[in-house]
Amino acid sequence: MQLIKPGLTKLTDALDIAFAEVPVIAPTEDRPISDCYGAVLRQDVVAKVSVPSVDNSAMDGYALRHADLAGIDGPVSVVGVSLAGHPYDGTLPKGAAIRIATGAAIPDGADCVIIQENVTANADESVIEIAADVIARTSLHQNIRWQGEDIKAGDTVLSAGAILRPQDIAIAAGQGCGTLSVARALKVAVFSTGDELAIPGDPLPPGGIYDSNRFAMIGMLRSIGCDVTDLGLLADDFDVLQGALADAAKSHDVIMTSGGVSVGKADLLKPVVESLGEITAWKLAIKPGKPLMRGKIGDCLVVGLPGNPVSVLVSGLLYVMPLLRHAMGADRSRLAPTRIPVRSGFDFKRMTGRREWLRARLVQNDDGEFEAIAFASTSSGMLSSMVWAEGLIEVPEDCGQVSKGDQVLYLPLHGLQ
Ligand code: AMP
Ligand code: MG
Asked: Which one of 35, 176, 352, 373 is separated from 289 by 20 to 30 angstroms, measured CA to CA?
């Protein structure tokens, strides 16, 4: 029996093909570092300075010469101070100490720091007493952070293709970068299609439903740093759709739509894109989200998602967002979702042939172990399942049954959105 139905493409193949066919669309721009959160880095960042830049103290205390400690049998003179940004610029005399603050440079001659809590200082801190047991357990180099122990000048601290997190931006700032070369935000036009749809805020006609997908799409796109144009609702009408897509393609890098990509009479997206450009992929072996379409109009990438709200979110998070991040230059290795092996706390049976994601949560069972529970319904129309979910359970193409206790893969949603 053939595993994948004819006409459907496995998600991994579909992603391989899409990554190969869709170029990096977004040009680079230099952006102030404070605006770079979430952006795709388009340069390597090579350290210009070592961090720490000098040997410095990890603690507030007193810097001493370790070889002097054995000879101490009374008060020790404190002959100077080294503060962060204000180093002591002499050499530590034999048998003496220097008051030192966290982050301050270790004075010449000193090679250990005793923390202030372990000494007794007189009122003006000109003299300290160090108990014999403190001396005995003070080791050479104690509490010293070495020049370059974090970063050495010349190290590559960030590589092109990274999606910038707070710590990445911080390490670049620590190298004195005021701006970074990042991908310009992709310009994405978004609209929902369907005659049944009404705009939230407007009255709901009989039999109508409010358009919710547009807001899911806009949210996903903004979370990956796209510059979104909300083009609202379009009717299931060939000419209306053709006009709107042709227009949007002129001024956007990407068009993202929901609805109208299946095989019904009102499913016009595919012929419309064919009339203006070409369809490059259609129908994935996934559930939910099967009729997903990819195409292009001129240089504008088009992704048409099916109308069911869960399909929009699942295929958006697992196919479209990685593809758009790739189009901004993100390294592919950073785009695979986190998949955590966990025990199933549920039984599930199904037809094989598609990769399926069940809406899930992790809960602690009676033995204190975490296991996944799944939402009662697998319907791709039930948006409440995505609101309930904290993650997705991935059921592989060839798996027809999951039993309680089986190992399954859990994809945390917070890693995807
Ligand atoms: P379609 O893919 O256009 O056949 O739509 C599939 C299902 O999703 C239908 O039940 C639609 O009513 C629903 N749907 C389509 N578009 C939206 C939308 N923008 N918001 C909420 N539901 C939608
Ligand atoms: Mg429709």
From this structure: 373
